[in-house]
Amino acid sequence: MKILFAASECAPFIKTGGLGDVVGTLPAALAAQGAGVAVVLPKYRGIPREWKRAMHPRLSFYVNLGWRKQYCGVETLERGGVTYFFLDNEHYFGGESVYGKGEFEGERFAFFCRAVLESLPHIGFAPDVLHCNDWQTGLIPLLLNTQYSNLPGYERVKTVFTVHNLAYQGVFEWAGVRDLLGVDEACFTPDAIEFFGKASFMKAGLKFADLVTTVSPTYAKEIAGDEFGENLGAFIRYQVREVAGILNGIDNSDYDPKTDGGIEANFCAEDFSGKQACKRALQEEMGLNPDETVPLIGMVTRLTEQKGLDLVECVFEDIFFRDVQMALLGSGERKYVDLFNWGAFRYPGRCGVYIGMNEGLSRRIFAGADMLLMPSKFEPCGLTQMIAMRYGTLPIVRETGGLADTVAPYNEYEDTGYGFSFTNFNAHDMLFTVDRALGFYGDRATWARLQRRAMAMDFGWGSSAREYMGAYEKVLSRAQTTAEERYAGSAEEEQR
Ligand code: ADP
Ligand code: GLC
Prior knowledge:
The protein contains 19 helices and 18 strands. By secondary structure, it is of the alpha/beta class. The longest helix is centred in the last third of the chain and has 34 residues. The site of adenosine-5'-diphosphate has 18 residues, from helix 1, strand 13, strand 14 and helix 14.
C-alpha cells in the first residue's frame, strides 16, 4: 500500500503547531507497519539551510493556473524510511512566513493542490491513497474527483482528508478559485463548497474525500454539532457520511526523559531526582525564584483564543494569590502577549515568560514544570498534554476534544486517573481545578503515584497507525464497489 501525505507543514523541516508534528511522525509509523510512505509539502523559504542542502533537485514542470503557467520544481530527500517531496516556487513559497493573509493565501494553496496532482506522473511514487490535511490541501479531493478521475494513472487514487482544526477553513473569493483552477460552477453550491458567498477549501475536502477523519474520537463527535462545528456542523451531519476519530500520537523515542539530550538531567518514573534538577534549571533560565518546593505551572502554547487564555486572563491575579510559579512559552496574538508580559512585570521571580517559538525551551518546560495548564476552549487533539505526561508533568485541562480522550482525571475515592480536568468554559471552574492540583501536589506520595501513572501511559503512534492502516484498507476496498454503489444509490433514489 502506498500513501502520499500532502500537507502545509512537516517537522523537522517546517512547523507552526501540532500539524507539523503529526505529518512529521505519522508517516514513519505507517512505514513501520509496512506501507510505502511519502510526503509532499511546499519548499518554504523558512526551511533551515541544513535541510535545504540535503535536498536533491529531481525535476521541474509547469502548472497551468488560470491564464498563467507557473514553475514548479521538485526536490527530494529520504529520512527514516520516508521520501519527502518539496514543491518549489519562489513566488508562492519564497515569503518570510509559512502562512499569510488575504486572497494570495488562497492562490498559494490552490497552486499547491494543483501542483501536487500534476506532480504524480513525474515523481516515481504512484500512491494508492492521497492523504490530505487541513484546508490547505482541501482542493485536492475536489480536483481529483472532478477533473482527473478519468485520466490514466489517477483512476484508482483514493483520498483521505484529515481535519486537524476546523476553525481554519480557507475561505476565498469564488471568482478567483474558479478562474485559477477551472472549478466547475456546479461545485459552487451550499451542499458543496459555497460558504456565505465564498469558496471554502475546507468544505471541498470534507465533501469530496473518500474518507474524512479527525484527530480524536471526541472531536469527531463535536464537529458535527453546533457548538464546535464552526458553522459547518449541519454540513458535516448531512454531507459527510462518516468522520473517523483517530487519536494523534507522539514520538515516544524522541520525547523520552530517560534519553532526552536537551534537558538538564535525565530521569525516569523510579527516580525523579533528575526532574528536580530540570526544575531548578528551568527556574534559573526563566528568572524564577530558586525554590524547588513551589509548584511550577508550565504552558507551551500558540497564543490564540482556542487555547482558553481568556480564562487565564480572568483569574490571573487569583492564580498568583496562591503560592505558585508559572513558566509560559508562546507566540501569537498581541493581546495575550501583552497579558503575559504584564504578568512577568507584575510578578517578578514568579511568572517567567518567553514569547516566540523555541523548541529547546519547550522541552525544558515539559521536563521541568510540575503541571501543564491547557484550558482550551476547543482542542482537536492536543499534543502538549501528552508530551508533558511523558515527562511526569501532570496536565490541568478542560474536558474537550483530544484533552478529554487523553487525560483521565484523578479520582481520589477510587484512586484512578492521573490529571485534573473541568467541564465548563468557566474561569473559576479552572481555578478550582488548579486548587485541586495544588492540594494534591502537597501530598508527595500521591503526586508521585500520579506522575508514575501518567508516565506509564503509551501515547505513541502504534495503535493509531494501525487504525489509519485499517482506514486506508477500507477506502481502497470501497474503490472496487464505487460504481455499483453509485448504481445502487440511484436505483434507490428512483424507487423513492
Ligand atoms: P496546536 O497544534 O493547536 O498548536 P498541539 O498541542 O497539537 O497544539 O501542538 C503544538 C505543538 O507546537 C507542540 O509540539 C508544542 O510543543 C509546540 N509549540 C507550541 N508553541 C510553541 C512555542 N512557542 N515554541 C516551541 N514549540 C511550541
Ligand atoms: C491542530 C489542533 C491540535 C492538534 C494538531 C495536530 O493544530 O489545534 O489540537 O493536536 O492540529 O493534529
